[in-house]
Amino acid sequence: MKNFVILGGGYGGITLLHELLDQKIPADTQIILVDRMPFQGLKTEYYALAAGTSSDMELRVKYPTHPKLNIRYGEVTGINLDEKSIQFQDSEVIAYDQLVIALGCTDNFHGVPGADEYTCTIQTFEATRETYRRINNLPPQSTVNIVGGGLSGIEIAAEIRESREDLHVRILDRGERLLSSSPARMSKYVEAWFREHNVELRNKINISRVEEDCVYNGPDERIAADITVWTAGIRPVPLIDELNVNQDNSGRVILDDLYRIPGRPEVFVCGDCASLPFAASAQAAESQAEQIANVVVAGWKGETPKVQPLKLKGTLGALGKHAGFGSGFGFGGKSSVTGRVPRLLKSGVLWMSKHHFG
Predict the structure, then answer these.
(1) Do 273 and 282 form a contact (C-beta atoms < 8 A)?
(2) Which of 21, 305, 323, 351 has the lowest tally of Cβ within 10 angstroms?
(3) For residues 153 and 131, is the Cβ–Cβ distance under 8 A?
């Protein structure tokens, strides 16, 4: 029996899995899904779990069941490309004939001293649960520093404000405006929303080190907080660095035209670990997974594989449960839309993702 192994049950891995289970799988092939958790966690919504506005249960999605699918729970500690094997923390080893690496990302602390040790994060379910515990155990009038003014930082800051009106929330960003890579109109709307809801904004901040009760802007300015939440960048999981393959400046694996490691036609890389022409996102992972499925199925049928250029629909973000912002998604040709409509659309996209409708 041939083993088709998918490492990671996130957006990319699960999209690929559903695409393949909808096809006629060869009689001599079984699919093995590997993940630490017994369910898919909706990572794009972890900010709401951290703030306490969504429950743990709301962000879980059951894995599918299928006669051709086996699920292996555990911590992967190594990938041996030469021996075509996966090593686990419990010393078990499984062999693969084809492999898809979709292990996602971890926080990028950019070498800032103390950042790893003293900040909370929302990159894993476990870390997000701990962030929730710490934020919601804070006494009234405590201060929360959010490091990073991108989508994740904005969403968790807004959600904390909605959850805990008694807290002082502060966003620390290195850019001149929030969402610096997005249309200026969107940034202005988001910044105005935060001012209206008493969230402090600090721009042009250069975090030089982090301590238990503060961060430092440059060498001398101490910015105190009871908790600091880090949302200032991501990078592929450490296992990717151990593969000894070509990586881009962000640490993502450089692939061939069919999303395979060059010289390793049996190994695909999907999602946050893959070097793509887009920033890492759930949407990019899902779009790429659909194309990888096309390549795999063509191989099963003995046909020449074809892939289409990856296309993203746009960006959606939430400011609490009643406001949001977005670009793309066919908003009548406008570069960005703000207010209630994009928030409702984000809720709809979440519902579709939970039910695997794309």
Answers:
(1) no
(2) 351
(3) no
pTM: 0.93
Angstrom distance (rounded) from CA 222 to CA 86 = 45
Rounded-to-integer distance, Cα 341 and Cα 333, Å: 15
For 62-98, how does the pLDDT look when each residue is reduced to its tens digit (9 = 90+)? 999 999 999 999 999 999 999 999 999 999 999 999 9
The H-assigned helical ranges of the chain are 11-21, 46-51, 115-118, 125-136, 151-163, 184-196, 282-301, 340-354
CB burial readout 22-36, b (16+ within 10 A) else e:
eeebeeebbbbbbbb
3-state secondary structure of 2: strand
**What pLDDT score does 155 carry?**
97
User: CA of 342: how far to CAs of 223, 317, 357, in Å?
Assistant: 34, 8, 19
Per-residue pLDDT of 185-236, as tens digits, reads 899 999 999 999 999 999 999 999 999 999 999 999 999 999 999 999 999 9
**Percentage helix, strand, coil for the chain under 3-state DSSP, each rounded to 5:** 30, 30, 40
What are the residues whose beta carbons fall under 8 Å from the beta carbon of 159, sequence distance 6 or more? 47, 48, 50, 51, 53, 318, 320
Beta bridge partners of 224: 214
221 alpha-carbon distance from chain centroid: 31
Q: List the structure tokens of 274.
A: 């893959």
Q: Is residue 7 predicted with pLDDT exceeding 60?
A: yes
Phi-psi region of 222 (alpha: psi -120 to 50; beta: other; left: phi over 0): beta
CA angle 125, 342, 16 (to 5 degrees): 50
User: What DSSP string runs through 196-232?
Assistant: HTTEEEE-S--EEEEETTEEEETTTEEEE-SEEEE-S
CB-based contacts of 169: which residues, under 8 Å, 6+ apart? 143, 144, 146, 157, 160, 161, 198, 199, 200
Alpha-carbon gap, residue 104 to 112, rounded angstroms: 22
